[in-house]
Structures are given as C-alpha cells and as structure tokens.
Write a structure and sequence with these properties.
The protein contains twelve helices and 17 strands. It has about 350 residues and is of the alpha+beta class. The structure holds S-adenosylmethionine.
C-alpha cells in the first residue's frame, strides 16, 4: 500500500504579474496571500534578497476575488534589485520565490516561479493559438507559467523516482502550442514528443520546436507502440474530458508507457474551487457536491471547438481525490496526489506497475 502524498505540497496562491529587466536591474510585482496577517514576507531572486521590497500593497481587486481569504486585499508586492542581465539569467531560469519567516517550506518548487531568458526562447505562438491553450492573449503568462510548470513537473518527477534526463523518451500529452514543451526541448539527451487533438497547434510545435509532434484522434488508439515512453505528462487535459474519453485515454496512457514508467497529469478539484473566486457558500456547496459525486462536469468549453471540429468533446470537469484513487487506480497505480502543485491544478502521479509489455 503506497502512502498518498496529500498535503505535503500545499502551496498558498501567489502570482507574478510583471517582470521588468533593464539597465537598472530587475523589477518584479504581483500579489501573494499571506497565511496570517502581519507575518513578514521574504522575497528572493535566485536565492538572494532584493534591494527593496514593498509589501503589503493594497489590492482591492485581489480582495474581491479571494472573498474567502483573510488579508487578500493587502496582498500586493513590488520588489527591485540592481543586477546585470548575466546575473539575472546566471542559471537557466530566473527563480523568484517567497516565504514567510519561520514557516518551513514543504516543497520549495511550489513556492517558486521561473522565467526563461527571452533571448533564448523559441518564437511565440500567435494570439489565437495562445487563446486556445490558456484562454487569453497573454504571452508573458504563457512564458512564466510554461517555465514554472516545467520546473514543477521536473521536481515532481524527480521526487517520485523518475528524474528527467538524458536517455528519457517523454510525451507531452495535450501539448497545445508547446507552453511546457518549449522548455523540455532544451534538456539535452531527452527525446521529446508531443501529441494533441488540435492538429494545427501540434503542427506549430513541429515547425518551431525540437522534437516529434503529431495530432491524435479524439478517441484512442494512437500510433505510438506499446510501452514507448518513460514518462508521459499532461497539463490540463483530464480537466476537459468526459468520463468516457477519460477512461479510454487512461487505458491508452497505460498502454504507451513502459512498465515502471510514470504518468504525471493534472486535475481540477478543491484547490481550483477555492482559488477560482466565488463566495464561501457557493464554494462550500460545490466542494460538497464534488466530495459526494467524485466527478463533475461543470460546464461546456468552446475554446478548441473550431480547431477540432467538434463542440461536444471539450468540457470543464472536476475530480475528487477518492474518485481518482478508486477509478483511475483500475488503469494505473496512483502513487501520489499533490494539491495545488501546478497553478490551481492538483497533480496526480501514476505509475505503470506492469512488469512487462502485454
Ligand atoms: C488547456 S490546454 C493545455 C495545453 C498544454 N498542456 C499547456 O499546458 O499549455 C488542453 C490541451 O489538451 C488538448 N487535448 C484535449 N483532449 C486531448 C486528448 N484526448 N488528447 C490529446 N490532447 C488533448 C487540447 O487540444 C489542448 O491543446
């Protein structure tokens, strides 16, 4: 019996809204929800303190969104430091982190945001492609979120015995226009694959990123051989599938992952409900319904309807942990569930516990 990782990776929401880099150095701003009022926040860049930090700054907009969180209206921050561009990108990614004095960090990567040097970046996809994967035209969040999700997937994979490195064959399932794969493709010695039902976005990746990218049908099978991948990850894919499509794809992921291989995917659950705005009562009702039913279709989603020529397939759905354990466990071994590990998504780590390819 494997202990589930619920709770070891509980991150409070915070976000970066701007990163400015010029001859004066680095400026970063955003908001962070303090777990308790009056705790001094500590912000760092590449593990070093900033020269100047303003916190808290009044943020009525954040207060209105997080009605259920105390102190959310006093959550703004602005930091600056004199630093050269070479220092800012001395590691592969600029790392911005916050912590509260005296509060142990459960898993550092969850508290950090990462940002790649724009000069090293592949081209950015066009507006309509961004909108299909993140719902808005925001190339800064596309890059910040892509680098951060990539680093968190790396941390989770390493923590669960599947470090990403040379010799790995990895599939980004639901690759979109390469928000995460654009950083995976930098890792030397990794064989990068990406698949998506949005053929136009898969084609953009094939033209602009290193790796093998292809479109796949709405329902499996794919052309990938049995046991082909060491690791498959899928960010925000199971958050959009009906139970019928979910089960077919769980079976397919189990088939194309090698025995002992790892699958890391995200779901929406209580974290997304809590951080999605809404009042105490509405959130409590939705959580209660999810706890009872396990799987909920919350709404239709027309973001990719035109691209896939189908307006029924893509949905918004929520999963409860007990449902994932019980139901998904029939296809793959559920190794860990980590609330809020990737944005407002919970992460599910699965293992193909077959000992041989069938
Ligand atoms: C919310 S977007 C996320 C894209 C990308 N993973 C990211 O994090 O930027 C969901 C993506 O999953 C794709 N998708 C949905 N169902 C899929 C399936 N059954 N197989 C492969 N891709 C799928 C969509 O076309 C879309 O590109």
């Amino acid at each position: 019996m494997v202990a589930l990782g619920i709770g070891y990776f509980r991150a409070e929401p915070w976000t970066i809204e701007t990163i400015g880099i010029d001859d004066d150095g680095l400026r970063v701003s955003g908001w962070v929800l303090p777990p308790l009022a009056g705790l001094p926040a500590r912000f760092t860049w590449n593990d070093r303190p900033f020269d100047a930090v303003e916190f808290p700054i009044a943020r009525d907009d954040v207060g209105r969104h997080f009605l259920t969180r105390a102190y959310s209206a006093a959550s703004g921050f602005a930091c600056r430091v004199r630093a050269s561009r070479a220092e800012i990108f001395e590691r592969e990614f600029l790392r911005i982190e916050y912590g509260f004095h005296g509060r142990p960090k459960p898993f550092a990567a969850a508290n950090a945001w990462f940002f790649g040097d724009p000069d090293r970046d592949p081209p950015l996809p066009e507006t309509e492609r961004l909108v299909r994967v993140i719902g808005r035209d925001d190339s800064f969040q596309f890059r910040l979120g892509g680098a951060t999700d990539f680093k968190r997937i790396c941390a989770i994979a390493a923590r669960h015995g599947a470090p990403i490195g040379p010799g790995n064959r990895i599939l980004d399932w639901g690759v979109g226009c390469g928000r995460v794969a654009r950083y995976l493709q930098r890792v030397e010695g990794v064989e990068v694959h990406g698949a998506d039902i949005d053929a136009d976005n898969a084609d953009w990746c094939a033209r602009n990123l290193r790796g093998e990218y292809r479109s796949v049908p709405l329902m499996p099978p794919t052309d990938y051989p049995d046991g082909h991948f060491d690791l498959v990850y899928g960010v925000s894919v199971f958050t959009h599938l009906s139970q019928l499509a979910q089960d077919a794809w769980l079976r397919e992921l189990a088939r194309i992952t090698r025995p002992g291989g790892t699958v890391i995917v995200t779901t929406h659950g209580e974290t997304a409900i809590e951080y999605g705005g809404g009042g105490l009562e509405a959130n409590a009702l939705r959580k209660e319904r999810l706890r009872k039913e396990g799987f909920l279709v919350t709404s239709a989603n027309d973001q990719i309807a035109a691209a896939i020529g189908n307006s029924d397939y893509y949905l918004n759905v929520d999963h409860a942990p007990w449902y994932v354990r019980r139901h998904w466990g029939r296809f793959l071994e559920v190794v860990a569930m980590i609330p809020g590990a990737i944005g407002v998504h919970d992460v599910v780590v699965l293992r193909n516990s077959r000992t041989s390819i069938q």
